[in-house]
Amino acid sequence: MARDKEREIIEEEQEPEEEQDEVEVYEADSASGIVGFLGGLVFGALIGAGVALLVAPERGDVTRRRIRTRLRDAGDEAKEQLEDWRDDAERELRRHRRKLQRRLRPRTS
User: Fold this and answer.
1) What is the rounded CA–CA span in Å between residue 37 and residue 31?
2) What residues contact 56, with CB distance under 8 A and at least 6 apart?
3) pTM across the whole model
4) DSSP state letter for 109
5) Which 8-state DSSP code applies to residue 1?
6) Each residue of 54-89: pLDDT tens digit?
7) 2-24 as b/e: b if 16+ CB within 10 A
8) CA pair distance 35, 42, nearest whole angstrom
9) DSSP characters over the chain
10) Do the beta carbons of residue 39 and residue 46 sit within 8 Å?
11) I need a labelling partner for 37 at 20 to 30 A (CA). Which of 22, 84, 100, 108 fits?
12) How much of the chain, in percent, has pLDDT values that exceed 90?
């Protein structure tokens, strides 16, 4: 019976060390897994770009011109949207100022 208790105490003392070893192994596996994933991602992107160039339906200069035009159009739309939002914000600000001025105006009876 005393030996069983001693064995239990020894086993309990050894468990934290084993858990610590598992954590260190997990951290090492995690880091190598991330590096492997990123390497595969870069490799896949390069392969995809190469295939896209081989099967592109148009010449490169035509594709670049289309991309430039679409980016310019998207930029113009973004500028217009920002101007609309700015106009809306200014309108709301003026409305709230008038409302505040009416509340602060001394009442004459």
Assistant:
1) 10
2) 63
3) 0.41
4) -
5) -
6) 787 888 788 889 889 998 999 999 999 999 999 999
7) eeeeeeeeeeeeeeeeeeeeeee
8) 11
9) -HHHHHHHHHHHHHHHHHHHHHHHHHHHHHHHHHHHHHHHHHHHHHHHHHHHHHH-SS-HHHHHHHHHHHHHHHHHHHHHHHHHHHHHHHHHHHHHHHHHHHHHSPP--
10) no
11) 22
12) 35
Separation CA 67–CA 48 (nearest Å): 18
Kindly list the domain boundaries of the chain, sorted by start residue. Answer: 1-55, 59-109
- How many other C-beta atoms are found inside a 10 Å radius of the C-beta of residue 89? 10
What residue has token string 């592109």?
56
User: Which pair of structure tokens corresponds to residue 28?
Assistant: 């090492």
